[in-house]
Amino acid sequence: MATHKLLLLPGDGIGTEVMAEVSRLIDWLNKAGIASFETEHGLVGGAAYDADKVAITDATMALAQASDAVIFGAVGGPKWDGVPYDARPEAGLLRLRKDLALFANLRPAVCYPALAQASSLKPEVVEGLDIMIVRELTGGVYFGEPKTITDLGNGQKRAVDTQVYDTYEIERIGRVAFDLARKRRNKVTSMEKRNVMKTGVLWNEVITAVHDREYKDVQLDHQLADSGGMNLVKWPKQFDVIVTDNLFGDMLSDIAAMLTGSLGMLPSASLGEVDAKTGKRKSMYEPVHGSAPDIAGKGMANPVAMLASFGMALRYSLDMGALADKLDEAIAAVLAKGLRTADIKSEGATVVSTSQMGEAIVAELQALHA
């Protein structure tokens, strides 16, 4: 049995609480002989700043480079609002994405049957929802230069962020989306703003060219990103795979998250290029939710997104898709039994703590392996 090296980075706020449930799951998998994991732990975000005055150390980055997958919690909180910009908690996350060259962000939005009532939309709109948003993660306005604030005098300032994309960046994220669609319902919707942005014009041209050259068997649609956001709320089940840039992907994936009832339910994966020699790729897995400092330390956090993120690691990095399927089944079964954390509570449900939810999911997975 192969042994997989994992780096666990809990981060700040509820990140430490939900990561504890991943550790619980890993411990059980190791003891049961179902899998073999070696884990390292590191600091990131505010926790790293408190210890080392940086958002992530070079030593922790070296551990990330050497791992088979990085499992990431959450960073940030008002405690660190006054730290230098380069050392802000989010800088640790951005460095991980940049240094590991994690260009493809996969954000599934799945509505578990038991939670159709938890969405702010009508149950018939979200019941059975299963879409995948593929967000380009290392280009665009978040990384483009120049990025400045200039003092113009007379109390005036000018802020500049630069949206930049090269052909190869759009091609590679497009291929990720088309390859995923072939394993799903064979439909890709590309979203950009070609009506007002030159990067949108190029994005549309390149995605179309990749499709025509390599993926004619996949249905391709184009939508303007603002219209796409409207349609995500109007009738989300029309979509299968959505591919979009860094900025629009950030916004659209959060819209999709709330279709399912709570940010606490949704995982994500960030993937690099496949190494031609080893067949492996750098990767990081994290819940979509943030550090939620308002509930940190209260045992109220929902661990489902964190556990499901670990499930994505099993599927996309560790070649353990069957185990990932069973973990998804265990999560659905626990929800069907009426267990809920506070963020997804409903009438007649049993509200449980973070640890109780994690324990119940591991117990359900154990029963599936009995």
Automatic annotation (TrEMBL):
Pfam families: Iso_dh (PF00180). One of its GO terms (cellular component) is cytosol. Coiled coil: none annotated. GO terms for biological process: L-leucine biosynthetic process. It comes from the Bacteria. Residues 5-361 form the Isopropylmalate dehydrogenase-like domain. It is an enzyme of class 1 (oxidoreductase). The record marks Y142, K193 as: Important for catalysis. Pathway: Amino-acid biosynthesis; L-leucine biosynthesis; L-leucine from 3-methyl-2-oxobutanoate: step 3/4. The keyword Lipid biosynthesis does not apply. Keywords: Amino-acid biosynthesis, Branched-chain amino acid biosynthesis, Cytoplasm, Leucine biosynthesis, Magnesium, Manganese, Metal-binding, NAD, Oxidoreductase. Substrate binds at R97, R107, R135, D226. Mg(2+) binds at D226, D250, D254. InterPro entries: IsoCit/isopropylmalate_DH_CS (IPR019818), IsoPropMal-DH-like_dom (IPR024084), Isopropylmalate_DH (IPR004429). Its EC number is 1.1.1.85. One of its GO terms (molecular function) is NAD binding. Binds 1 Mg(2+) or Mn(2+) ion per subunit. Its cofactor is Mn(2+); Mg(2+). NAD(+) binds at residues 77-90, 290-302. Catalyzes the oxidation of 3-carboxy-2-hydroxy-4-methylpentanoate (3-isopropylmalate) to 3-carboxy-4-methyl-2-oxopentanoate. The product decarboxylates to 4-methyl-2 oxopentanoate. NCBIfam families: leuB. Belongs to the isocitrate and isopropylmalate dehydrogenases family. LeuB type 1 subfamily. This is 3-isopropylmalate dehydrogenase. It comes from Rhodopseudomonas palustris.
